[in-house]
Design brief:
Blueprint: H1 2-11, H2 13-16, H3 23-31, E1 52-55, E2 58-60, H4 63-72, E3 80-84, H5 90-98, E4 101-106, H6 109-121, E5 127-131, E6 141-146, E7 160-168, E8 174-175
Helix pairs in contact: 1-4, 3-5
């Protein structure tokens, strides 16, 4: 899977601006057993570079997208990150290996319950989970990853720290808000 991600980075440099991804990100992804984050019937495909269905109309992002979005945050280990769309927790687990604190929101209660157990099994003790639509009392965040499809992106500007970044899975569109532009519509 890691070699596929490296190849994909080289192939998509024109769109992403990154010919290679951080070794820290790739090492974290290698440590996380992705097959534990997909349903049993999908485990044979767990390490394919593909979006996989996980039930309840949800999917797990392809490994390259997980790696790219995580890499774009440029985490050093001291950050507080917000993830919108916990899903099965794979992206959450990767973030937990790279950031000081991860706050993750999931809209579907049944999905969140199973994910909480899975993350605990993986030793992700710096992860905070919540069911719902927001987490304003935990703001500001150094980075935000949106793996779900919210109706409005503008609401995230209130959650940024001074140099916060937000990345959304919508077609490689990178949305960055820093102190100077945080009030601008995203």
């Amino acid at each position: 899977m890691i070699e596929t991600i490296r190849n994909e980075a080289r192939l998509t440099v024109r769109y992403t601006g990154r010919s290679e991804l951080s070794e820290r990100v790739l090492e974290a992804m290698e440590e996380i057993p992705r097959h534990r984050f997909v349903p049993r019937y999908m485990r044979m495909a767990a390490y394919d570079n593909a979006v996989l269905p996980v039930g309840q109309g949800q999917t797990i992002s392809q490994p390259f997208i997980v790696a790219l979005m995580t890499d774009l945050l440029e985490l050093t280990g001291s950050e507080k990150v917000l993830e919108i769309g916990t899903g099965t927790g794979y992206q959450t687990a990767v973030l937990s290996h790279l950031a000081a604190q991860v706050y993750s929101i999931e809209y579907l209660p049944a999905l969140l319950e199973a994910t909480a157990l899975r993350l605990a099994e993986q030793g992700c003790d710096n992860v905070h989970l919540r069911q719902g639509n927001g987490w304003p009392d935990a703001a500001p965040f150094d980075g935000i990853i949106v793996t779900a499809a919210p109706r409005r992106m503008r609401i995230f500007s209130a959650f940024f720290g001074q140099y916060g970044k937000v990345f959304h899975t919508a077609g490689f569109k990178q949305m960055i808000a820093d102190h100077a532009t945080r009030e601008r519509a995203i």
